[in-house]
Amino acid sequence: MKTIYIIRHAKSSWANFDQSDFERPLNEKGNNDAPEMAKRLLNKKITIDVFISSPALRAKQTCEHFCQMYKVPLKNIVFNETLYHAPEQVIKNAVSTIDDKFDSAAMFIHNPGITDYVNTLTKKVQIDDMPTCAIFAVEADVQQWKDFSKAEKTFLFFDYPKNK
Description:
Number of helices: 4
CATH class: Alpha Beta
CATH architecture: 3-Layer(aba) Sandwich
Helix content: 25-40%
Number of domains: 1
Strand content: 15-25%
Largest sheet: 6 strands, mixed
Order of helices and strands: EHEHEHEHEE
Distance between the termini: 29 Å
Radius of gyration: 15 Å
Shape: globular
């Protein structure tokens, strides 16, 4: 069984318009929402074997908040450069290359690709727009990540900061 937690980065700052998109940090709301959403996963007794992130600062910082809540060393984060503003097919390819020794993975990604990707995972739940720091979780009865995209998936949950 393989389980994926697709997470959109938390709310980012637009305070410095001279800053590149890649270097935009989280704002105060983002820095509050990310640990709160990680705590929700922990409260559900969810284990995560690997944390994979876009290297963009806002995604990286969101992932770091989750790692801190999970007491996972930040050096264990796997950065995948292809996830920065990745379209749906690139995300699908990134999932297929996750090391098979991991049964669960959290991926920190950007819109609009993240919304497009989660809408390919199950017909039961379709999302108009993945909110910042939203989590979409599915699992598939496969042994290898390369088989994940073609396998039938079971929807687990969709959660986001305003869903209290």
